[in-house]
Amino acid sequence: MPAAIAPTEIGRHLPERGLCWISACSADSQVFREGLAGLSRPDLTFTGIFVPGLNRPSYMLETGAAVTTFFMLPEFSGSGRVAFLPLCYRDIRLWLAENPPRAALVMCAPPDADGRCSLGPVTDFLADIWERIPTLIAHVNREMPATLGTPGIPFERFDAVVDAPQALPEFDPGVDDTALRIARHAETVIPDGATLQAGIGRVPEAVLRALTGKRGLAIHSGLIGDSALHLLRAGALRPRNPITAGVAIGTKALYDAVSGPEFRFRPPSFTHDIATLAGIERFVAINSAIEVDLDGQAHAEATPGGFVSGPGGASDFAAGARRLDGLRIVVLPSTAAKGKISRIVHARNATGPVSLGRFDIDLVITEHGIADLRGKSHAARRTALIGIADPAHRDGLAAS
């Protein structure tokens, strides 16, 4: 049986060196933060799926450890001990297979009747790799809901356990008028019976919330927010297997619901698998961007101040949606900085790398309308995208 320990004893159970996975997303643990405080561990490298705006993982760097991250966060900017790997989800899987962690710090639910601890609403890469990790340390959190879809980790497999209640961190991006206008446009092109994937953020959440009048929908996504609960309660989702996801990040209302039979939580080897996605009819991928250039390419990872995110799973879902009769949608406000900066830009002025190429996008939607890029020449794409830019910026885009 695992040793019952206090948070301050966590350091004694970590290996002398190597890669250490740590729970994040909505399983961000105060226990692990407390347990690592004051430690000097320059021999370790921490990794996980850290969400900008939700997780604050600078405490890992305070131990002297290195960090390998797949999403850039402000807390990591400028640190020489942070390695940013800009990998899509299928490539993260390959990297972890080649670089298996030696230890994992895992938040989980208490053991069920079969002695397994559910990973709750954060069934991420750990669910695919835990069996190959020699040292597992658990934060058993009685406030974490047990979820269906993936067997948990056997309690006896843990080396040490800290039992401590903790509310899950909540996140609600809110909805503004611009997001609502974008959502109303998107609602016109999403059919009944569609299976939906949506990225994180205000606009994708608003789009899903606008679909409560649809019927027969399903969700298959790496991430869900409270919009999934809105659709479920509105009767917009099909009765059989309505929601499949890897991670839930939202409010307490969502966390209270995810243990229900309507939700299935699966690891990226299923949620982001191209073959799985290719077999889903009427699959609609909805992702946001920071900018879209006039060639029809989306830029979603950087601002003029530097990287603020990573590739994530958008390209995986775009590749899957391309196989059948899917639809790949990019949504974004037309401007930033209170209208001063256009987010529809010339390719030469775009910030950061291309996150979704011109072969990965069917529709671009702003509050000013829909640019359908399918089957269009470069000139026609340019015209369509200028047509959904903010009116104040259209002449400048057309003239240069």
TrEMBL record:
SUPFAM superfamilies: NagB/RpiA/CoA transferase-like. GO terms for biological process: acetate metabolic process. Pfam families: AcetylCoA_hyd_C. One of its GO terms (molecular function) is acetate CoA-transferase activity. InterPro entries: AcetylCoA_hyd_C (IPR026888), AcetylCoA_hyd_C_sf (IPR038460), ActCoA_hydro (IPR046433), NagB/RpiA_transferase-like (IPR037171). Transmembrane segments: none annotated. Residues 250-398 form the Acetyl-CoA hydrolase/transferase C-terminal domain. PANTHER family: ACETYL-COA HYDROLASE, ACETYL-COA HYDROLASE-RELATED. This is Acetyl-CoA hydrolase/transferase C-terminal domain-containing protein.
